[in-house]
Amino acid sequence: MINGIINVYKEKGFTSHDVVAKLRGILRQKKIGHTGTLDPDAEGVLPVCLGKGTKLCDMLTDKDKIYEATLLLGITTDTQDTSGKILQESAVSVSEDQVREAIMGFVGDYDQIPPMYSALKVNGKKLYELAREGVEIERQPRRLHIYDITIEEISLPRVRMSVSCSKGTYIRTLCHDIGHKLGTGGCMEKLLRTKVGRFLIVDSLKLNEIEELRDQDGLEGCIIPIDEMFTDYPAVTVSEEFNKLLYNGNAFLEEHILKREGTEGADRTIRVYDEEASFIGVYKFDEEKSQYRPVKMFFGSN
C-alpha cells in the first residue's frame, strides 16, 4: 500500500469524489481520501491522501488556499456561478475604480453566508440536496479571512483576480457578494485553485500523468512522505529500548529521547521516530504530567 500525499490537478468536469475513485483504480488501493471539495467546473490543486496519509485529511483541509477566479458582473444565478439558473440580469454601468474599491473592501475579516449549493450539512442533509429539492434554509454567516486580493485584469463585465484566503471560503459566494455590493449582481465564471498550504499548481499532476508514472515505475518520486507535512516541528528519536511505548501509542518521557534535531516551539510539538528512522507520529508535551503524549499516530498497519 502507498502511504503519503499526492498533489493532483483536478480537471474540469470531475468532482473531487471522481478523482478519488479514479485514483483507486490507478493506484490499485482503496484507502484514499481527498482534502477538500472543488466544484466540478473548478480546476487546480487537490491534495489526495494515500494509505496512512488519510489520517491527514482533516489537517490539510484546514490549510489556507489561493485561487485565480473570473468574476462575471451583471448576472446572478442560483448556484452563484455560470453553471446555475440565471435569476437576474443587470446592466454593468460601474467604473473600473468602483469595481476595484468594492473588491478590495473584502480584504480582511469577512462574514460569509455559505451557499445553498454546497456540501455543508444541516441536520444530516447536504445543503445542495435541499437546494435541488427547491428548499432554501437560513444559514448563519461564518467568519473567514481574505488575506489578499490581486486584481489581474478588468475587462467589464469580467474581472480576473487572485484571492488568498482562509479555509472554508467559497469564491463563488465572494463573487456573488462583490456583485451585490456593486448593485450589478455577479457570479463566478472560472475558478483555478493554485495553492493549498505547501502544495503548488506547478507541482500538480493530472490523472493521466499519474497513470503514466505508474506504468513507468516513477510514482515514488511524486508521493510526499507523511512526515514531510510536519517539518516545522523538531524531529526526535526515541531510544530503541522504549519502542514498545511508541508502537503502542503510549506517552514517553524526556529522558527516553536519544536524539533531537531542531528547537521546540512554545507549544512543544514534535515529530517522533524510532532508531530505524520509522516515523511514529506527532506528539505534544503535557506540562502537567511532564511527558510527551501522541497527537496523531501514523505507525502500524492501520
Automatic annotation (TrEMBL):
tRNA pseudouridylate synthase B C-terminal domain: residues covered: 172-230
Positions annotated as active site in the UniProt record: 39
Keywords: Isomerase, tRNA processing
SUPFAM superfamilies: Pseudouridine synthase (SSF55120)
Listed GO biological process terms: mRNA pseudouridine synthesis; tRNA pseudouridine synthesis
Assigned EC number: 5.4.99.25
Pseudouridine synthase II N-terminal domain: residues covered: 24-171
Family from the record: Belongs to the pseudouridine synthase TruB family. Type 1 subfamily.
Annotated protein name in UniProt: tRNA pseudouridine synthase B
Species this chain originates from: Anaerobium acetethylicum
